[in-house]
Design goal:
It is an enzyme of class 2 (transferase). The chain is mainly alpha-helical. It has one domain: Helix Hairpins (Orthogonal Bundle), CATH 1.10.287. It has four helices and no strands.
Length: 123
């Protein structure tokens, strides 16, 4: 139920708190999120230090964030599906598989972006 006085800066503060709680839960319960966050923490300084244009730098960083965002959404979908029922249902499997495919696509986008921008610098 929504609090009665939930507008303005109070709403922003509450929303930020919920977001931080979600990040903590993802870190605690989702191995894939931990792995991708550690990888992003390693790759972010590289994106900041490599000699590329500002647009290329933004694309490198955007790819990292996109993987994390899609992984969070995938984890949320999996949690909701698991909450509904433990028994197998084709639609539950479909929802999880499609969310997993979205993570795969974000990883492919990130990898392709990094390769297209950084490989020419190496060769």
């Amino acid at each position: 139920m929504k609090p009665a006085n939930n507008n303005g800066i109070k709403r922003v503060i509450r929303a930020t708190g919920f977001s931080m709680q979600g990040l903590k839960l993802a870190w605690k319960h989702e191995a894939a999120f931990r792995q991708e966050l550690v990888l992003a923490a390693i790759m972010l300084p590289i994106a900041l230090l490599v000699d590329v244009s500002t647009v290329e730098r933004v694309l490198l960083i955007m790819g990292l964030f996109m993987v994390l965002i899609v992984e969070l959404l995938n984890s949320a979908i999996e949690a909701v599906v698991d909450r509904i029922s433990d028994e197998f249902h084709p639609l539950s499997g479909q929802a999880k598989d499609i969310a997993s495919a979205a993570v795969f696509m974000s990883l492919a986008f990130c990898g392709l972006t990094w390769a297209l921008i950084l490989l020419p610098l190496l060769f």
